[in-house]
Amino acid sequence: MTSQHSITDDRKSITPQSPAELEFQFPSKYDDIEHPVWWTRDRLVSCFYSLPEDTVWNSYICIMSLSAIVWVAVDFTGTHLEILDAAYNISYAVHVMGLGYNLFAGVERPNINIKILIGFLLDLVTYSHYVSRQQDFKLGCYFIRLHRPFRYLWELNNYYLNGSVLGTTLKYCYICLVLRVTWALVWLNIDQASHVFILA
């Protein structure tokens, strides 16, 4: 009898389950997924929070900050350039707001000093070029914005890369590019001033 009961139990365990039982074994599409879609509110907030520390984003800000000086100094005109200039101003505003969120809203006790306040004040002043439409004033505002790329490169060298050759190279290459652009602008102004003096 015992052997018959055991055989019967084994057969019951081998018998296929009903479709209703199998249905609950597969994950439903409404179950929580491991990687949620990026356009959810939590993912957008997380992306905004981590944006100022993202290497690709900071590289974009560094390139755009220097390129903006070039296209303002050369006085390029066109619809595409106006769109690019607006995109740069929006990107810089998002970058500054992300930094402010990390410093003020992201921590319980923000560590605020005079250096941080001056940095945000300079960022705010750089948008005054929408009030004054003079080219030289706008160029000066864009030069002031270089303090953010320089600060990021210094932190990249001192903290993230621990004084490595790559961090030092990136920092000094960017400094050389800024000096090269500045030197070219100085010579352009000198050349224009000399032509005006000769014609006078």
Write the layout of secondary structure elements.
Elements: H1 2-14, H2 19-23, H3 41-50, H4 55-74, H5 79-105, H6 114-125, H7 135-144, H8 147-160, H9 165-199
Keywords: Membrane, Transmembrane, Transmembrane helix
Transmembrane segments: 57-74, 86-106
Give helix % range: over 70%
Identify low-pLDDT runs.
none
Q: Please tell me the total number of domains.
A: 1
> What sequence of helices (H) and strands (E) makes up the elements?
HHHHHHHHH
Transmembrane segments: 57-74, 86-106
Keywords: Membrane, Transmembrane, Transmembrane helix
Identify the notable features of this structure and list them briefly:
single chain; about 200 residues; mainly alpha; 9 helices; about 75% helix
Please explain how this structure is put together.
The protein has 200 residues and is mainly alpha-helical. The protein has one domain. The protein has 9 helices and no strands. The chain is globular and about 65 Å long.
